[in-house]
Design a protein that fits this description.
Layout: E1 4-6, H1 13-19, H2 24-30, E2 44-46, H3 47-61, H4 66-71, H5 82-88, H6 92-101, H7 103-106, E3 110-117, E4 120-127, H8 134-150, E5 160-162, H9 172-177, E6 182-183, E7 190-194, H10 207-217, H11 229-241, H12 248-255, H13 259-268, H14 273-291, H15 296-302, H16 308-319, H17 323-343
Parallel strand pairs: 5-6
Antiparallel strand pairs: 1-2, 3-4, 4-7, 5-7
Helix pairs in contact: 5-6, 5-10, 11-12, 11-14, 14-15
């Protein structure tokens, strides 16, 4: 199933686009979306089209902070019915875990994973495998920060917000929105914080109201409860690659099943773990080469290869050219696209 996003993802998009002298309705049509679809915040739209309009508008406006600006003033209410539950969860950990469980009621583009490692913890986020959008990730980061830090009644701050892409040219919006340290060219997208923060109490926490909200959410028919094991595995591998632990045993453990059961279910759906791992490596490698300043050697390590030569051989087999050459060709094509986009009448 193709991932979808609620129309509220584009809340205030027309106004923001006009601020940069870009015709929002022309950009929506170009991306395959009707302007009328934005009238109802709960309309479900093709996720790929939503990301396309955000990225192409950012390119035309020449604003690499467009995703951050789009999410800057989001409130709890923009999460839809899930906000009723999050508002009344007891602790920060409860809020995060509920966001993970009900993330597909917010939109279907989002993967989330909470990692607790002793005194330090991380909340990792990414787009579902197969989708790439630096502005989509920036919007996601902005919304996650605002929901967890600025609009909850929990007194806490993350230690750092991490971005896998390179530092933006328009850094002022990032500094204004994220009132904590930022790390670009990071090994993961997400936030890091003290594990002690997870027990921080929500001033509006109410277990009875939270339980009532949870029962109501479970009745909503638009949530897609049945994900295939392949889809679940892809999402899990994508997140585990950020921490360098995407082995089959770890993936099975995260899915709550034995390795043997995991392998059997993959076979039943005509898939293998090695193919899934290669798919995720392709997505991750291409994103780092296209959007970050990491060296090719660093990208090889982030993709799970211990040597540059092994990574290069794999990359050539997948893309027909060495990773360094692929990066040059992609950057040249992207620069040409931006030049042509800026010439298209708004």
């Amino acid at each position: 199933m193709l991932p979808r996003a609620r129309a509220v993802t584009l809340l205030n998009y027309p106004e923001l686009a006009r601020c940069f002298r870009v015709d929002p309705y022309a950009m929506l049509l170009r991306a395959g979306l009707q302007a009328s679809a934005l009238n109802d915040a709960d309309n479900w739209l093709p996720g790929e089209h939503v990301l396309r309009v955000i990225d192409e508008t950012a390119d035309k406006a020449q604003r690499d902070d467009f995703g951050v600006l789009l999410g800057e003033f989001r409130s709890f209410g923009s999460l839809g019915p899930v906000s009723l539950l999050l508002k009344h969860e007891i602790t920060l950990r409860d809020v995060i875990e509920s966001m993970i469980v009900y993330r597909r009621l917010i939109n279907e583009l989002l993967n989330l994973r909470l990692e607790i490692n002793g005194q330090g913890s991380r909340l990792l986020w990414s787009l579902v495998p197969g989708l790439r959008s630096s502005q989509g990730v920036n919007l996601l980061a902005t919304m996650a920060y605002r929901m967890l830090v600025r609009t909850t009644a929990i007194a806490w701050e993350p230690e750092c917000i991490h971005f896998r892409h390179k530092a933006p040219a328009h850094a002022a919006a990032f500094a204004r929105v994220f009132e904590c340290p930022l790390e670009f060219d990071s090994s993961f997208d997400g936030m890091s914080f003290s594990s002690n923060s997870l027990t921080s109490r929500n001033a509006y926490g109410d277990p009875e109201l939270a339980a009532h909200a949870r029962r109501l959410l479970d009745l909503i028919p638009t949530i897609r409860h049945k994900e295939s094991i392949v889809d679940r595995a892809r999402a899990t591998i994508s997140l585990l690659m950020q921490s360098g632990q995407p082995g089959a045993t770890n993936v099975a453990s995260c899915l709550g099943i034995s390795l043997r059961t995991f392998q059997r279910q993959l076979r039943c759906e005509g898939e293998t773990f090695s193919r899934l791992l290669d798919d995720c490596r392709r997505d991750l490698s291409v994103r780092y080469l296209a959007e970050s300043n990491h060296s090719v050697t660093a990208v090889a390590q982030l993709a799970g290869y211990s040597t540059l030569s092994a990574f290069s051989r794999w990359f050539v087999s997948e893309f027909g050219m060495p990773p360094g050459k692929w990066r040059k060709v992609n950057l040249s094509a992207k620069a040409q696209y931006k030049r042509s986009a800026s010439l298209v009448p708004a």
